[in-house]
Amino acid sequence: MSDQEQFVMAEQADRGGAPAVYVVGVGMTQFGKQPDRTPEDLGREAVWAALQDAAIDPRKIEAAYCGHVYQGMAVGQRVMAQVGLAGIPVTNVENVCSSGATAIHGGYLAIRAGECDVVLALGVECLTGRFRGALAPEEGDFEALQGMTMPSIYAMRARRHMETYGTTAEQLARVSVKNKRNASLNPYAQFKKAVTLEEVMASRPIAEPLKLMECSPVSDGAAAVVLMSERAVRALAARKPTRLAAVALLSGTYEPGLTDMAFEPLTWRTAQVAYARAGVGPEDIGFAEVHDCFSSAEVLRVEGLGLVPRGEYPRFVEAGHADIGGKLPINPSGGLLGKGHPLGATGVAQVVELVRQLRGEAGPRQIDGAKAGLAHCRGGKAAGIEGAACTIAILTA
Amino acid sequence: MSDQEQFVMAEQADRGGAPAVYVVGVGMTQFGKQPDRTPEDLGREAVWAALQDAAIDPRKIEAAYCGHVYQGMAVGQRVMAQVGLAGIPVTNVENVCSSGATAIHGGYLAIRAGECDVVLALGVECLTGRFRGALAPEEGDFEALQGMTMPSIYAMRARRHMETYGTTAEQLARVSVKNKRNASLNPYAQFKKAVTLEEVMASRPIAEPLKLMECSPVSDGAAAVVLMSERAVRALAARKPTRLAAVALLSGTYEPGLTDMAFEPLTWRTAQVAYARAGVGPEDIGFAEVHDCFSSAEVLRVEGLGLVPRGEYPRFVEAGHADIGGKLPINPSGGLLGKGHPLGATGVAQVVELVRQLRGEAGPRQIDGAKAGLAHCRGGKAAGIEGAACTIAILTA
Questions:
Q1: Which of A64, A260, A312, B14 is 20 to 30 A from A75 (CA-CA)?
Q2: Domain final position from A228, A245, A262
Q3: Are the beta carbons of A91 and B88 separated by less than 8 Å?
């Protein structure tokens, strides 16, 4: 670990004294292909659902943070105007696939700073009206022009994991089987049907060893959460507060290149910050929502988080330990592979799932007895660095 | 004032206990037409200048907030990678013309929350490579399609002010004369030449009564500031701390329509929050940088801030009171009309000017003896609400 990393980590440790933060309301729209819906329309539905779940007077909302990538100017304001909350402070944030989680981080800081007691964090994205098939790379992304698109990057990393640890293509495919099975139990998920290992393996090759069913889809959707300070939880008698014990955000350092493509230092470093702030370790985490944009991505995330030793996650999945009834359920919501991936909404929807699980409201996907859950996003690539943004939230019952 | 407004304002008042925040380094690029420069290139120059001005080890920077509108994904991360600061938490924010100020608000909250002690806030925008002539309205902006573009809105508001208060077209034009004269004293400004009243009045009509020289230009540029907590100021022996006494952010409530186009309730409301947080009143403000996107806009801002009674600012300008040597200098930097308006950079550049003035480093534009300065931005329109975002920062020597 470099001096720079040590400095950042020491400085990022929680300093105490700031108010504790709770999630008191959650809501989301159906995720899926909804090309005729606007960000205002989706955002309104998610926000209303979260406000209704929180059962508070909407006028108690003091500020809003809105995460998105492609929705144009002042999206958060446009959504607030639709839900009757025009006039409050609104901040729009973008951190590629971590945009929604960055909105939660913003709301968390506004409460921690003592500026607000009740904050709305939302994420929204309409993609299917904009992209046919896969997302087009940014103009001027010279790496993507050379073929280094997201599927090929995650395919290379899968190949490295296979070479180093003896991981098989079937083990990777089982990540999709698990997540799509979980999604079939989630009414908000894009994919409604469980699939077999054979179906995943027989699906169209995208970038060897990844098949179509191992890639997250193009989706439209929105999600929202209501955050409160501890004193607001008491003053407003919030019915079901879930502690947002920590939110951590880091960007990637300079590209480590091919030194170890089978491991993800950015996820590891962000996790150290999150664990330190929450005062927990990976051994305390009962389940997690992680950024499974590809089947191989889930492997990199879970191992990078230190939840399973390096190289062992594919066998862990094969043994059923990551299933909803297993030792450490991963992506009980269906994850990006099953629930869908409307970029800005994803990080918020992960927290929606954590809250539902920790409250015992997850219905047929309910995990027994988990006391702490973790949500992990990792956003995009940027030329020369290992990733644009990684976010981790830890929630405790 | 509605219940909603009262609630927001009461809740927005500063709650104390959180660390005080200081600006310890400022930097900006030349503003102007620089179509060949990238946001990374401009951002790097501004950040380096701010770091050099702060005279601190760049590795002390713990997080960055980047404001922009049109620069695509992960701009802040791309700039950080260029200045050797990859790896820290980076948050990209967008609030139309208040984007840069919103980045400062983000950094301010990160310090107030105790999460960071040293934060970089920057704003960057490349417009001339993207737009020929005026900025094109957003797709789907049905108001703009009907002719309600920015120049026509500010022309209508000018007309209303003329009707209500007897303001003359010449008085409005004098705002441009003043700001372009100030800009001629600012080496970073887009316009290098003072202009006469006759030249402004003879410039091409844009939307009656506004002429070309009364409209802010399309610009490229970047600006950056280093923020520190009070304890970091001491621990790192910052040479020239300037207190960031308050940052306030509000979005617009539902469009008041034609009830009083000569006044700006959003600016007024945001000012009340800012004054309350800073513990000062308009009478304590010695000078201000305000969002003069049009000559008439400066009138609405200064009167909305309560710095000059309603209806009186045009005569105040005519009397020379808003000049650098006057009672209440407005836009000593040259403002948007003279310095230029690279959207995301504007709010940060305003704070750069405030700091230079309060330190006594403004050279030929130096204002004597001012102890408190105010920076005001107002961003965009959004269908159905009076404005997307208004931000006010108050700095004290």
A1: B14
A2: A245
A3: no
Q: Which of A8, A80, A91 sits opposite B95 (nearest CB)?
A: A91
Q: Which of A393, A386, A390, A149 is nearest to A263 (CA)?
A: A386
Range of the domain at B17: 3-130+219-245
* Number of inter-chain CB pairs under 8 A, A vs B: 203
Residue of B nearest to A232 (CA): B11
Sign for the CA dihedral angle at B51, B54, B59, B62 comes to negative
From the list A30, A73, A28, A31, the residue with the least C-alpha distance to A342 is A31
- A155 and A113 part of one domain: no
The answer to whether position A198 is within a domain reads no
Active site residues of A: 97, 341
Q: What is the mean pLDDT of residues B67-80?
A: 96
Q: Is residue A225 part of a domain?
A: yes
Looking at the fold, whether A122 and A154 belong to one and the same domain comes out as no
Average pLDDT in chain A:
93
Report in angstroms the alpha-carbon separations of A206 from A162, A169, A190, A335.
Answer: 17, 13, 20, 20
> CA-CA distance, A97 to A381, in Å (whole number)?
10
Verify whether the Cβ–Cβ distance B73 to A78 is below 8 Å.
no
pTM of the complete model: 0.95
d(CA A375, CA A373): 7
Which residues of chain B lie closer than 8 angstroms to A86, CB-CB?
251-254, 384-385
What percentage of chain B carries pLDDT values higher than 90? 85
Classify residue B135: in a domain, yes or no.
Answer: no
Confidence of residue A24 (pLDDT cuts 50, 70, 90): very high
Residues of B in contact with A89 (CB under 8 A): 12, 248-251
How far does A106 lie from chain B, in Å, by closest CA? 8
Same domain assignment for residues A71 and A175: no
B207 lies in the same domain as B237: no
Nearest CA to B362 among B242, B215, B196? B242
Interface pTM (ipTM) of the complex?
Answer: 0.94
Can you tell me the distance from the alpha carbon of A356 to that of A295, in angstroms, rounded to the nearest whole number? Answer: 24
Closest Cα in chain A to B106: A106
Q: How high is the mean pLDDT of chain B?
A: 93
Report pLDDT digits (tens) over B183-192: 999 999 999 9
Interchain pair B106, A114: CB under 8 A = no
Residue A147: pLDDT over 90: no
User: Would you state the pLDDT for residue A158?
Assistant: 97
Q: What is the CATH number of the domain that holds B78?
A: 3.40.47.10
Domain annotation covers residue B136: no
Amino acid in position A167: T
CB under 8 Å to A234, separation ≥6 — which residues? none
Whether residue B234 is found in the same domain as residue B328: no
B241 & B147 share domain: no
Return the residue in B115, B138, B266 with the most chain A beta carbons within 10 A, the one to mutate for interface testing: B115
Domain count, chain B: 2
CA angle B187–B191–B196, rounded 5-degree value: 120
Nearest to A18 among B7, B77, B114 (CB): B114
Distance separating alpha carbons of residues B62 and B350, to the nearest angstrom: 23
